[in-house]
Design goal:
This protein has 311 residues and is α/β, with parallel strands linked by helices. The chain folds into three domains: 119 residues, D-Maltodextrin-Binding Protein, domain 2; 81 residues, 3-Layer(aba) Sandwich (D-Maltodextrin-Binding Protein, domain 2), CATH 3.40.190; 91 residues, Double Stranded RNA Binding Domain (2-Layer Sandwich). The strands form three sheets. A five-stranded mixed sheet has the order 2-1-3-10-4, with helices on both faces. Strands 7-6-8-5-9 form a five-stranded mixed sheet, with helices on both faces. Helix 8 runs parallel beside helix 9. 44% of the residues are buried.
């Protein structure tokens, strides 16, 4: 049995919280285990003045950490699952997935107004095409303001009056003890979350059985079923940050239900559908749902946005 585990993570307050949670869970199970946290700066942390969709998307927050994993500088990487690209580098895999935190998005507004109460022309800060498309679908009269940076930076920009409201992942807000700042939890009918939002990803080398034996008790089966169903949907659509794609799965009494969405950037065209089936077929359901949306017209949106991104 290994005596030391090195965790690779980004250096943001939220990323460090996530790594420390894994560290604590491992130490609780094996008090004699030495668990070190190694901070690695990613390209996404260095480029803060450009929307993610214009500089490469999801992989920006994981590539350097994955490189360290492949070099064996670290034993595991702890990421936000929503930051994980559809395809992982050769030799790496998603390990145990802990129980998911709340998956929804939240609105935090300067004046305490809910989304429906914001005045025409008021601004919402986000650099997520998924969030902005869904906001504009229900409130085309609002203005979207690009917003990058860690959670604390985004809150400071809101406080400084640079925008009237911001949309964030509820999980990050709760994990940092800032739940009191939330104005409104956005219902899935208004705002479907990102694939894997609220879940942690523990990544490791495929051939590292010694490390897997130390960490496998962190697995939460229902969360894995849901996350892999959502990721199958993303994978089939070959989606990333350049495309407004959202999905939310649920398991109830051995039944898996998945709602998926593909939208145009302006939110005017939006394809959304729900599909259910046996929980042990969650990935097939994710793939089938993607195919159904693609056949309805989502593929045309995907192709248009990808072509625009390459120009």
């Amino acid at each position: 049995m290994k005596s030391t585990i090195k965790i690779g993570t980004r250096g943001s307050k939220l990323a460090l919280w996530q790594a420390a949670w894994v560290q604590s869970a491992l130490k609780k199970r094996s008090p004699e285990l030495t668990v070190d946290i190694i901070v690695i700066k990613t390209r996404g942390d260095k480029i803060l003045d450009v929307p993610l969709a214009k500089i490469g998307g999801k992989g920006l927050f994981v590539k350097e950490i994955e490189d360290a994993l492949l070099r064996e500088d670290i034993d595991i990487a702890v990421h936000s699952m929503k930051d994980m690209p559809a395809h992982l580098p050769e030799g790496l895999c998603i390990g145990p997935i802990p129980q998911r935190e709340v998956s929804s998005d939240v609105l935090i507004s300067g004046g305490g107004r809910h989304l429906a109460e914001l005045k025409p022309g008021q601004s919402i800060g986000t650099s997520s095409l998924r969030r902005s498309a869904q906001v504009l679908h229900v409130r085309p009269d609002l203005k979207i303001v690009p917003l990058r940076g860690n959670l604390e930076t985004r809150l400071k920009k809101l406080e400084a009056g640079q925008m009237d409201a911001i949309v964030l992942a509820a999980a990050g807000v709760k994990r940092l003890g800032l739940e009191h700042r939330i104005t409104e939890y956005l219902e899935p009918s208004v705002m479907l979350p990102a694939v894997g939002q609220g879940a942690l990803c523990i990544e490791l080398r495929k051939n590292d059985q010694d490390t897997y034996q130390v960490i496998n008790h962190l697995e939460h089966g229902p969360t894995r079923t849901v996350v892999f169903g959502e990721r199958a949907f993303l994978n089939r659509l070959e989606g990333g940050c350049q495309v407004p794609i959202a999905a939310l799965g649920q398991v109830r009494q051995d039944q898996f239900t998945l709602s998926g969405l593909v939208a145009d950037i302006d939110g005017q065209t939006l394809f959304k559908e729900t599909l259910s089936g046996p929980a042990d077929a969650s990935e097939a359901i994710g793939t089938n749902l993607a195919d159904r949306l693609a056949a309805r017209g989502a593929r045309d949106i995907l192709n248009k946005l990808k072509n625009a991104a390459q120009e």
